Amino acid sequence: MKHTGLLASLMLFSGLLLASVPNPHADYVSGSAAIPNGTVGSLNLEDAKEFHFDYEGGMFKLPYERITGVELATKPGAKALFASAVSWVPKFGRKQGRLLTLAYKGENGAGEAATFEIGKVEFQSISSILEARTGKRVHYEDIDDPQNAVAKPAPAPEPVSTLVPVTFTSTPRGASVSFWGQSAGATPITTKLAPGTYTVQITASGLPPWTRDIVVEPGKPQTISADLGHIDNNVVVVTR
Length: 240
What we know:
Radius of gyration: 21 Å
Shape: elongated
CATH class of the largest domain: Mainly Beta
CATH superfamily of the largest domain: Pleckstrin-homology domain (PH domain)/Phosphotyrosine-binding domain (PTB)
Oligomer: single chain
Largest sheet: 8 strands, mixed
Structural class: mainly beta
Helix content: 10-25%
């Protein structure tokens, strides 16, 4: 009986601990992650090994061990890693919006980054968890932010390659584009990617999938076109 009570207490404590991890609202601003810019979702730090960004229709997963730097800023700047690719305006109604930038190593070893807009209060609720999971101190870019008075200086994150615009089109239009199983949107779509090799899959209902490895070179925008073949007579594809 005593052991049963102890087990129940431990289960209750574990449930409360998991429930105590906040899942703050956030918007994906820009970066090399295969997420459409402006996607609305939430940050999920419940997994001890992976950072998650949950959004309608998908989830971005990033192992904490691949994160090389964490930065919080009130506006894009030189230390926002790839700020030249970001044209950011805070969302109306969001108080004290911040840009949370995660620098990380991609699956091919190249430097990449992802920037999210998050409220100041919401970030404070996860900052200690994020630091504990990544082993990195948060770098506060804003000199007017009171947190800078107590923030310890952090090593500069590894430089991130300049992002390159890549446009995906298909016949028929409206096909789904994904990288490593993560949806990037429907054709035609343009996204910015760090230089490197990517496995892209373009699919449409009733047609065989189109899968290719593409190479993104620095400073060389490109267009990838996929011909998915003839549409089956029994399948109706609606484009808008």
